[in-house]
Amino acid sequence: MKRVKHEKTVYDVFQERGFIEKVTDEEKVPEILKGRVTCYIGFDPTASSFHVGNLVPIMALAHMQRHGHRPIALVGGGTGLVGDPSGKDEMRQILTYEEINRNAEMQKKQFARFLDFSEDRALLLNNADWLTKLNYIDFLRDIGVHFSVNRMLAAESVRIRLESGLSFIEFNYQLLQAYDFWYQFKHYDCLIQMGGNDQWGNIVAGIDLIRRLEGKQAYGITFPLIMTADGRKMGKTEKGAVWLDPQRTSPYEYYQFWINTDDRDVKRFLALFTFLRMEEIQEKYGKLEGADLRKAKEALAYEATKIVHGKEEAEKARDASRNIFGWGALEMSPLRMKGEGRRLVDDGAIPTTYVPVEKSKDEIPAFKLFFETTSLCASGSEARRLIEQGGAYIDDKKVERFDELIKLTDNMKLRVGKKKFKRIKILDKK
Prior knowledge:
The chain is α/β, with parallel strands linked by helices. It is built from 18 helices and 17 strands.
């Protein structure tokens, strides 16, 4: 294998940044990663966009490439038609071929934010290209014969589902994923499969199939399930998933997700979800406490947003956040310098409700403003409770009564607690 010159191997990087949960061979894997290898991670296209919960494996592929290895991003156009039972307590919804293909195309665009696919530096494959062409009888004779049902039943992902019910189509998933690993080993010299820790059984099955069919050794690495300090699954919020697609989660909302990180998670998330050097994370942000942690949170939010949405959108989101919340000294951004040096915040970055000028002439009860006009609250009763408990603000002034009549003004700012807000813009047709 060709030697790759780096002070640290990618295995060292994975260890210090918190990526590794399990390794199939703790002596051999670090050794082979000193040379150039091909690795892969599979992603089933069950949605038209990745979300924050998908970032650990995607970032892992990016680190592999940055250290001279060749990553394969495998879109599960074939396995997605079956559905992975791992980590699920009920059967996944079966999608149509059209839905799978549409989702796969959308995900391909998002991979390009993290990986360079030019000059064979990374590969983007779709397992539908080989799985949908399999002959069932031949597959059973050539592949199925190597799988023990007893061993498959012992796998945690299967055992958990046996209590609630496991369909035969899902039971086949492990064979298909193992076949994926063998196929890429055979045709692309892929030596390592990586994935979440719930994929351990599937990865080991692929390694075993390669050994049986080829008489050679392959390897696996799994990542931990990332939980926030308050016990929630990473990427889940009250509103649902935080998407990488700007049409589903705007760059500003994406930025706000990261800047609202729990104090206890900031250093860990800087290591996992940014490309900042660990030395910088340790020295510049690792020792910050209290109010100073805002600097680390802003670095996390900016860097994470820049990776997914680009530098300009990250700066817009940071400018809007600083303008509204007043966090930190405002550094000058060349993208928004004007006049006497005052930076203008991009209107499109701030969550805004647009109101026709004719509707702005009437006074509105405060609770309706927070519910019907801006949707900051899910219902009128929730808006009333919010105001009665002192959590509603208009232009930073607390709303005292839920039935208080409010006159809408241009650029009026509504706030719920410390983090949720909307701006009112009056639209004049003239």
